[in-house]
Amino acid sequence: MIIYRTFYREAIQASTGIIAALLVVLLLFGLTATLGRTVRGDYAQSVILQLIGWQTLRRVDLLLPLGFYLGVLLTFSRWYRDSEMAVLAACGVGLGQLLRPVMILAALVGVLVTGAAFVLTPYTARAIEAVKAEGSQRPELAGIVPGAFTESAGGGRILYAERVDEDGAMERVFLSNASGGRPRVILAQAGRSVVDEKTGRRRVVLQDGWAYEGVPGNADYRVAHFERYSVWLDHKPVVVPPETIQGLSTTALLATPGIDAVAEWHWRLAKPVHVFILVLFAVVLAHTDARRGRLANLFGAILVYFIYSNLLGLGQTLLKKGQVPSALGLWWIHGLMLVLALYLFYRRANNRPLLPPLRTVWGR
After folding, report:
1. Which positions carry the signal peptide feature in this UniProt record (predicted)?
2. In Å, how far from its chain's centre is CA 267?
3. More confident: 289 or 104
4. CA-CA distance, 298 to 294, in Å (whole number)?
5. What are the residues whose beta carbons fall under 8 Å from the beta carbon of 199, sequence distance 6 or more?
6. How far from 186 is each of 157, 164, 217, 219, 247, CA to CA, in Å?
């Protein structure tokens, strides 16, 4: 039918635009957080883009349902505002008939979300841990940002360089070392990163500078000029990326005993399941008119999404604590939301208000 094709086209366009906007927001938040940790010296600059990319891909199974949910909502909202829904109703096409293309498209989105939840997300979780482990093993110099103070992982050393070249050459270097109980400040005009061929350890060779050791005013305070001064950087042991429940493949997860594995399984399963329930809410909440504005119903839709998401998070917590049977999992939450969605859909399809009047509820 032409109506179905029109719905597919508009819903896909709206969903794609929303998902793209959400990806941009997620990238900006990820960039801010990752840069902050890089400046503190937690990660090397070379792993920033990898971390941001993997962390963004890890949220695909959440972005797809949300984008599709809002895309369907905005599509039907436009139809209501332009009186297209009224014309369809006059032609005998009600919400029941329109539910078919909605569910067909939801099934396609559900397949994508299933692949993301059971394959992509665990893979990206493992990749993120591997990149973090690799970045944390890099020497202190790898995390230096030109023009910013960089603190070592142990907190005993602060390094600053006005300029840092790709080959490790630095200009106007400041180094403060409080380890060993005796403060030391070094100022140098230039410096360079050097790797010891025998041990593989890295050191900074400073040139043409001054070293200030001790507390100013004390008798043992010393000031010395040097032409060449070497400082060994922290040598970090090789870190094996930790294996987390979130990073287990589906096969490994099913073979893993324990309530945490059960909770993770139900959490992954909930992502494609709630696509179909959310889209029912989208059809119901899309009802609007020209006087209410284009985004009048968006607040209610977002509220429903957050309530559903928070209930799933609460259910997973209860499942991990053993307060909910493993066999029940998160199905009780899906059941409650499905009953509510079907009830609201029934009232909307029969041109009734979504909620009965208060006097009817209170028997007045």
Report:
1. none
2. 16
3. 104
4. 9
5. none
6. 11, 17, 18, 19, 44
